[in-house]
Amino acid sequence: MGKEEQQLKALDKGKYRYIGTRPVRPDGVDKVTGRANFGADLKLADMIHGSVVRSPHAHARIKSINVDKATALPGVKAVVTGADFPMLSPSDRIPGVAPLSFYDLSRNVIARDKVLYDGHAVAAVAATTVAIAAQAAELIEVDYELLPHVMKALDAMKPDAPLLHEDMFTAGVEPKPTTPSNVSKRVAFTLGDVDTGFAAADVVVEHEFNTETVHQGYIEPHACVATITEDGMASIWCSSQGQFMVRAYTARVCGMEVAKIKVVPSEIGGGFGGKTTIYLEPLAVELARRAGRPVKMVMTRDEVFRATGPTSGGHAHCKIGAKKDGTITAASLQLEYEAGAFDGSPVALGCMTGFAPYDLENVSIVGYDVVVNRPKSAAYRAPGAPVAAFAVESTLDVLARKLGMDPIALRENNAAKEGTQAAYGPKFKRIGFEETLTAAKNHPHWSAPLGPDQGRGIASGFWFNIGGNSSASVMINEDGTVIVATGNPDIGGSRASMALMAAEVLGVDIAKIKPQVADTESVPYSDLTGGSRVTFATGKAVIEAAQDAVRDMKERAAKIWEVDVDQVEWRDGKAVAIETDKHQPLSVADIAGMAGKTGGPISGKANINASGAGPGFGTHICDVEVDKETGRVTVIRYTAIQDVGTAIHPSYVEGQLQGGAVQGIGWAINEEYIYDADGRLENSGFLDYRVPVASDVPMIDTVLVEVPNPGHPYGVRGVGEVPIIPPLAAVANAIADATGLRMTDLPISPPRLLAAIDAAK
Amino acid sequence: MTQIQFAAPGTVADAVKCLADANGGAKILAGGTDLLVQLRAGHLAADTIVDIKHIPEVRTITIEDGGFRVGAAVSGAELGEHPDVRRAWPGVVEALELIGSAQIQSRASLGGNLCNGSPAADSVPAMIAAATICTIAGPDGQREAPVEDIVTGPGQTSLAIDEFVVSFFLPPRPPHAGDAYLRFIPRTEMDIAVVGAGVSLTLDDEGVCTAARVSLGAVAPRLLLVEDAAAVIIGTRLDDTVLEKLGAAASAACDPIDDKRGTVAYRTKVAGVLTRRAAAIALERARAN
Amino acid sequence: MGKHHVSATVNGDPVEFLCETRQTLLDVLRDELNLTGSKEGCGSGDCGACSVMVDNRLVCACLVLGVEAEGRNIETIEGVAQGEKLHPLQKTFLEDAALQCGVCTPGVIVAAKALLERNPDPTETEARYWLAGNLCRCTGYDKIIKAVMNAAEEMRGA
C-alpha cells in the first residue's frame, strides 16, 4: 500500500475537503442551455437517414424479402437485410450470470429466418430524407408465414407451447433434455434444508405473484450516426451506456476488427440499463458502407417500446416459515422470468437477490429463464431484483401480520450482517442493512399518523454492485488545470463524482478539474456504465490515476529542488519539502509550468479491474391513500433510506434514490406492456405506457446511511440500482395496510384493485 | 413522396371552398393535438390540411343573447382565462382544461376535441350536458345542430366533407344552475379518459331540481346523453338516496368494451361513481348561484 | 406544390426557412435552424421534451406544423439565457441538482419559465400539475420541483 493510500485510509469523512460537497456538475451549463449534444443531435455533411422495417407479427417465418420497389424509389441510397450480415455461431457467446450470445444479439439486431416479436427488425433502408426513408421502408415487401406465438412464461413452459427456437434445450437440468424447450435454463441456489426448516416453523405463509413486462422509459430514443470510409474505417457517434460495448458488439455483428471502429459517445438521455446493448449501430454502419455516406438513425418512441429491451415480467412463488418470535426457519422462492425472444432474462439475479438481505439457515431458490414472443429483455436498474423482492418483501409483510410483529422488527430479527452467509455464495463483509432498518424505525415518517383510507408499507432490497474494468487518465495542463478522462458515459452526474475524487487526491479545487467522457481511441478500454460500478470502479481508477499524477509531480518537485523524492510530500495540492524550510512549496501550476524542464508533460494513468465492490441495501417507507370507489392509489408520502457507503456528491446520490423510487412506484401502480391477442403491442407510447408524471408523486424524502465500503479508498458503494428494488412491495404493503387486501399481481392498476375491493365485499 | 397541401383561409367562406375543392381529402387543423399525432403515425390520409385558426369567428369568445359563443378553435388556455364563461359553465371549462398538459392546453380546442370523434373526448360530455349548439358552416351557409348529433361513431362525424364547425353556443344560465365534469384516468394527468361524466342541473328557489342533463364518455361507441339518469334527479333535492339511484342509472346506460384503458366492469361501475360525484359538485354550484 | 416559405422570429431574431407541410415546428427547429436544444422524446405531445413558446404560449413543438410558424414569435431553450447570464431557473436547476441525464431539462425549463411568468408564486401542487406534461425518468421530480420553487422565490425577491 502506497503512502498516499495509507493517508487516504486514515482520513475520516469529516476531513474530506471535496468529497461530500455539492458543487455544480461540470456538464451542467450545457444541459440547462440546450447546448449539450445527445444521440440525435449530430449532423454531418452529406448525411442521409436510415429507417428500419419491423415485423408486425409476434412470430413468423420470413419466406422472402423483396426490396426492389424500395431500391427504385428516388432518394434511396442503400437497403440491408439479414442476409447482409455474417451469420454467427451459436457458440459465440460470453458465459456468466448475465450471459451474452452474439449469435442472438446479431439475430436481434436484424432477423434472419424468423421474426420473434412485434417490432423485430427485418430490414433497413437509407435515403436522403427521413420521409423518403420511411416511405421506402413501407415499400419493402416481406412475405411471412405466420406461426403460433406465446407471450407468458407459464404458457411457454407448457409441453405443447409453440417453440421459439428449435435448438434450445434447457440447461441446468439432469439428465440433459433431448427435446427442445422454451426454457433456456434452470438455476438453483440452496442453503441448509428447507424441509426441516419449514417443519420447525410455527407459521408458514406462501403466495404467488405475477408481474408484467415494463420498460426503462428513458426519454431519449436510441440514436446514432455512422460513417465508414472506402478502406473500412468506421466511426459511430451514439448514445449508449458504453462506447467500448458499442464498439465490441458492432464489430462482432458486422464481422469487423475492433480497431476499425471508433465510437464517440454523445451525452446519454437516460439508460437505466436499456442502453447496455446495441440495436441500430450495425445497421447504420452497413447502410453507410453501401451508400458511401454518413447515415443517421433515430428510433421513434413506438420503436423504442416495441423493439428495445424492456425488463422481464414473470411469475413468482414465495414461501417463508418462522417461529413465533419471528425467527425465519426456512424460505423458498421459485421464479419464472420472461426473457423475451432470446434467452437471458435476469432470473439468476432475481434468485440471488431476493433473500440476500436476510441471514437464513435454510433456503431453496429455483429460477427458470423462459423465451416468449416479446422483445429481448435488456438490463433495467437492478435487473431481476425488483420482481424477486416484490415476492419476498410482500410475503414477509404477510408473515409479520400473522405473527403480530412490527414489519421492521421482523426484518431486524433476521437481518444479514457482516459475516452472514448469503444463499448465492459469498459471506458479507461490512454492510449497512441493519442501519437502514434502524433509520427507518427512527424516522418520523414511520410513526406519523395516517388518515382514513390510508396505509403504510415498508420493504427492503439488496443489490450486489459490481466493479470491473476501468481506465482513467489524469492530465495536468500547463497552467495547473486538470483533465480527468474516463471511458464511461455519464448517466446521472458521474463526471461530478470523478472530479470530486480527483480533487480530493490532488488537493486541487474542483473548479480547476474538467472531467471528460472520452472516445474509444482516447482512453483505454472500460466496461460499460452499469451495475452501479462507475463511481466505485471508475472512481477507483480516477483516484489511482490522480495518485500516479501526484507521484510524478513529487518527482518533478524533487528534481527542481534537487532532493530525494522521499523528501517530498504532497499536502493540500502542493509539493512540500520535508525536514527543511529551504524550499517554497510548489503548487500544481508551479510544477506544470516547469514540466518542460523536468521531463516533459505530466499525467497519471490507471487501468484496473476493480474488485471489492460493496453490496448496497435499502429500506423504503411508503404511504398511500386508496379511493375505494375507483381503485385509485395515490402515494402521499415516501421515504427512501439506503446505505450508500460514502456519498461523493450527496445531491446526485439523493437523486438516484428519488428517481429509482419513482420508477418503482410506476412499476407498482401503472406501468405494463399490453399485448393484443395477436401479440401486437397496444401501448407503444407514453400516452398508454404510463410512467409517473410530476403530479403523481410526492417529494421523495431520502436518508443517506453511510457505512463505508472497506473495498474502496473513500468507502464508495454503488447506489443507483438499490432504490428501484423496495418500492414494488412497499407500495403493495401500504395498499394492504389501507385496504386489507394482498395484491399479488402488478401493476396494481385501478381496475385490478377495484375488482379486488369489490370481490372482497 | 406525396406532398400535403396547406391552406390557411381567413374567412369561413374561403375555408368551405378549400374543403369543397379538396373533395373529401382535406383535414381541418385547429389545435393539431390529435391531427399531428395521426399524421406522424401515418394514420392520416390527407391531401390538404386546412388551418382554420386565421378565421376570426373561430378564435373568439363573444357574449350572445346572455349565453356565450365560443369559437371552435379557441384553446383551453384561452377559454380558461375568460372569467365569465368559467362562472357560467365551470364544468365545460374544466372539461376542456383536463385535456393533456399545459402544452396541450395552448392548442386543444372544443372543436378539435369534438370533431376528432373520440368516444372518450373530455369536453364533449360536458358540452352535451350543457345543451351546447354547434354552428356549422357549409356551401349553403350556416346551420345549427346539438353537439350530441355530431359524432356518429369512433372517428366518424355527421359533417359533410365540405362542412366544419365554426363555433359553439353555450346557452344562458338561469339562477341556481350548475354543471360539472369528472373523468377517471389512471394517472393524475396526461391520460385519455377511462370514464367521463358530465352533469348540468337547475334548481328552483326551494332547491328542487327542475332541469338536468347527464352525459357519459368512454362507456359506449358514442358519447351518451343519458335521459334516464337525468330523470332520476329531476323533481328531487338530490339527497344521497337520489344520488345513489343516479349512479345506478348512469351505470345502466353503459355499453363499454374491455381495452387497454379499462374493463367493462370497471367502466360500468366507475361511470356511476363519477356521475354521482359530478352531480354533487353541480348541485353545490347550483346552490351557490 | 413545393415547400412553404416561412418567416418567423426565433429567440428575437428574424428567421426564414423552407418546409414541407408535414414537417413539424420541432423538425424545423432541429433540422432547418440547427436549434437542437429542443428534444424529441415521443413526437406525440406526451413527454414535453420539445416544449417551446409560440406567441407567448407554451406548446410541444412536435404538435405544431412548421408552416404554422409564419409570422409567429418563437422562443426556445436557446433563448432562455441572456448572453452569459443564466436565467434564475437555469441557476437553480444547477444548484439544486435538478437534472441527471439532462435530456428533459430544456423542455422542463421552458415550461417552468412559462409557469413563473403566469404565476410567480405557485404552490408545489400547482408546479407539479403545470409540469405534468414534462416527463422526467431520472429524478423522480423531487429536485425539479424544488428548483422551480427556489427560482420562483428568487425571482419574486429580485
Task: Please describe the topology of this protein.
The complex is a heterotrimer of chains A (761), B (289) and C (158).
Chain A: H1 3-10, H2 28-33, E1 48-54, E2 60-66, H3 68-72, E3 76-81, E4 93-94, E5 100-101, H4 102-109, E6 114-115, E7 121-127, H5 130-139, E8 141-146, H6 153-156, E9 183-191, H7 194-199, E10 203-211, E11 214-215, E12 223-228, E13 234-238, H8 243-254, E14 261-265, H9 281-291, E15 295-298, H10 301-307, E16 310-311, E17 314-322, E18 328-340, H11 347-354, E19 363-371, H12 385-403, H13 407-413, H14 433-442, H15 444-447, E20 454-463, E21 468-476, E22 482-486, H16 494-506, E23 513-517, H17 534-561, E24 568-571, E25 574-577, E26 586-587, H18 588-593, H19 595-598, E27 602-610, E28 616-627, E29 632-643, H20 650-669, E30 700-705, H21 727-739, H22 750-760
Parallel strand pairs in A: 1-15, 13-14, 18-19, 22-23, 29-30
Antiparallel strand pairs in A: 1-7, 2-6, 2-8, 3-7, 4-5, 9-19, 10-17, 11-16, 12-13, 12-15, 17-18, 20-28, 21-22, 21-27, 24-25, 25-26, 28-29
Chain B: E1 5-7, H1 12-22, E2 26-29, H2 35-40, E3 48-51, H3 56-59, E4 61-64, E5 67-71, H4 76-80, H5 83-88, H6 90-97, H7 102-105, H8 110-115, H9 123-129, E6 133-138, E7 141-146, E8 151-153, E9 156-157, E10 164-170, E11 177-184, E12 195-203, E13 209-217, E14 224-225, H10 227-233, H11 240-253, H12 264-288
Parallel strand pairs in B: 1-3, 2-3
Antiparallel strand pairs in B: 4-5, 5-10, 6-7, 6-10, 8-9, 11-12, 12-13, 13-14
Chain C: E1 4-10, E2 13-19, H1 25-32, E3 51-54, E4 57-60, E5 73-75, H2 88-95, H3 105-118, H4 124-130, H5 142-157
Parallel strand pairs in C: 1-5
Antiparallel strand pairs in C: 1-2, 3-4, 3-5
Helix pairs in contact in C: 2-5
